Amino acid sequence: MSATSLRATADYLNPFSITLLLALVLAVAMHLKFSSKEKILIGRVWCLLPFRIDLREAKHIMIFGITGSGKTNTAKLIVRSFKGSKLIIDWNGEYLVGRVAKPSELSISHLTMLDFCEALAASLQLTAPQYAMLLEVAKDSSNLSEMIEKLRKYPTESDTRREIKNALLRRLEPLSYANLFSGSLTVDDVDTIDLSGLTFDAKRLVANVILRLIYNNPTKQLLVIEEAQNVLLPRRLDQPPTSCEIIIDEVRKRGVRVLAVAQIPSLVSTTYRNAEYIILHRLNLTAEEAKNMSLTEEERLKIAKLPNGSCVVIHRGQKSTVRVFKAKGLSVRVMSERARAETREREGQSSPEPKSEVALLPYIVEDLKEVNEWRKDVTNNVSRLTREVEELKQIVRNFIDKLSFSSDAEVVAPSAIKALHGKIESLEYSLSFVRERVSEIEEALQREPQKR
Fold first, then answer.
1. 210 shares a domain with 71
2. Which of 36, 186, 233, 259 has the largest CB neighbor count within 10 A?
3. Which range marks the domain in which residue 170 is found?
4. Do 157 and 186 belong to one domain?
5. What is the pLDDT of residues 340-387, one digit of tens each?
């Protein structure tokens, strides 16, 4: 690199031009913020531009990450920001959003016994002979307790049938102590179903039952499944899809979005590949898992070293590294069964009044606060980028001065060359990022008139 080319590089790296370009990006992006209120803001890319996920249409989201990596916070943030109706299968009592109910308060009167038996078979992984016997005792039964009582009195003609009966009783009897589905509430009456305190089999049964209730009556717009590896069980590619997989694929056609959370991809069915968004917090992916998500080896290693709260979002082949916001506290409303019944009765008599402009004021204030925080972040990042440009120009000047005193390149300190390369790479990354964002904004602006 000659002294003349170095001087040209220093002149080209004009901090004013870069600052002006970032200001343009900020202005256009703010326009997009207010023209896309339906999208959910979850964080920022490169601590600068906001990153949103679009759930205006029924789309599925899959979140992976080890314990403590921030996956639950990301899920809570999406739940809090989603304005439509939602139902959360809260495996460990971590959400407790809105109207909370225990499984014992729910009713399955809208579910056929065949569907209930299928849920039992899927959650307990019954064998074919056990499932056949279960169907026999389910005839003319209205709940799990009646089924167990009939099974105890079920006659057996052979040792094999007796073994099947005893094995089935060992799986079903512990469930009777949880008093499941003995209430009168439907899934329409609640926002969160708290599974904490139940046994593992009972939790899986409730999750399977809820999926079937949602499939039969898809009134909720967002379904959240925590610990999805206990519902979407892995299988070989030559095996048929499970009933839970089929339900999750089908409810999307009925307007239900599914947000599933699990630890690692190998623990769940490969149906997650059909998700619109795959969010990866810190975890050690195998080479096969990375290949299934079209990740390079470099990206696989990067995901293994992500800090808490950061993630890689895969959306239609595009990958973005996002710093996720901290989810705010979620409101909890636990009502007695009588209070819920009174609420349903009141709602049935009169429709709710539409929100006035005054009622929308808190939401507007909240948006303005987000814009102000965003402006501060952009200002700080522009200042940092400007300082990097100035530092680079100073290093280039020092380097040129040393070259002007001697034609021997060996007299130049290796540390100066290394610092120069480091600053150039850093700035190249920053400029490349800005160019990509400008290109994305231009594409978005071109699509907007077509939609109108």
1. yes
2. 259
3. 113-176
4. no
5. 554 455 445 444 444 445 555 665 666 666 666 656 655 666 666 666
